[in-house]
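User: quick one
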Amino acid sequence: NAGVTQTPKFQVLKTGQSMTLQCAQDMNHNSMYWYRQDPGMGLRLIYYSASEGTTDKGEVPNGYNVSRLNKREFSLRLESAAPSQTSVYFCASSEMVWTGGDEQYFGPGTRLTVT
Amino acid sequence: ELKVEQNPLFLSMQEGKNYTIYCNYSTTSDRLYWYRQDPGKSLESLFVLLSNGAVKQEGRLMASLDTKARLSTLHITAAVHDLSATYFCAVDPLVRETSGSRLTFGEGTQLTVNP
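Assistant: Done. Structure below.
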């Protein structure tokens, strides 16, 4: 199993350009998430999808849109990139287990620079 | 708004020594997660703590949860260089029966173990 995969690994954009970050998981998890990590900080939730067909805003959704394409795939779109969106983006997935835990599994990350 | 605070943020210790990282959070929760992140890498799940008094141990690391004090600790015993990494705690404040945890992360504790 590949777990959670993300593409691309690295990307440089100019201000105003758009792009989509792709994420896929092969663990049959219901929930998927997008986070950003800025230097010296923890992760902040951008958007999440509790199950196929639903999406909700997280802590920092402005400037982003998401699509839950199917159970496996969850994409993040930057419509008009800004330098403040320079960050490392992580996708994660989870599934509630019988004990009540909802452990998230993370992808390798996408390093995005906006100039 | 849920706040999660870790301390210390930076920790330099010698091999063989013991130390504790603290994670305080501001709202009621009985779901707390610890993750490890190596430089330039993704997050790896270490522990899932799901109830008051929960204690988990793996190798030289032991995590505990006190929901009444809103405090989790990550204790390092006889540190070795391989433990050098950044450690994050994350709190899920919601009580749900289905997947879709909304984690709030601490800033992370950057641990350096010196020979």
